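Issue 218. Parser rejects a valid record. Input:
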Amino acid sequence: MRPSGRAPDQLREIALEVAVSRYAEGSCLAKFGQTHVLCTASVETGVPGWLKGQGKGWVTGEYGMLPRATHTRGRREAAQGKQSGRTQEIQRLIGRSLRSVVDLKLLGDRTITIDCDVIQADGGTRTAAITGAWVALSKACAYLVEEKVLKASPITGQVAAVSCGVFENAPVLDLDYAEDSNADVDANFILAGDGRMIEIQATGEHRPFSDDEFAALMRLAKLGCAHLFEAQLKAAG
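Output the parser choked on:
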């Protein structure tokens, strides 16, 4: 029995709420159970210096956790003067994931930054961030088309992410903190809307895992992402 009482192949309650930020070109509040991540998409003219003259835009992500997103207060990274390695790794993952489904040439001389701020954390913050970030990005691109800034959306497909793991010797979908902190195997799957893989992070936290266990986790991830893709399309309109 999972601590939450969910079936092994059951997601937490998922909610993707759009238009939650008055000023951002696109926004989404992604809720995976008790994990809540606010994703806002901001469009700016221009690209990083190393991209100038190449005739394409840029999509990037930033990630952070509010001080009281967890059981105890964490110091703001800005107050410490530097980002943690974990924060840098996650925001790079968000950027890579989104760029895999964007035609940067169609975006033109523009940068879209997706800020993913964790309001409340209960496991799976990076997967919730990626799933919500795609919705925010989609809404921002739709806005650019509506305003006739772009002739067509540069988005070429969907991307969603979900965690899976082996908890008490059973493969399970969408780990919350109680499972994530005690899982034998922990994995994050980032998948494209057509079922192809974008990135997989899998770690034997307490022991090695077998081919069969990995295949079971992959099956769960595809099942979970299928539901997330449906939720994204409904939210993005």
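Fixed in the parser; the record now loads. The longest strand covers residues 35-45.
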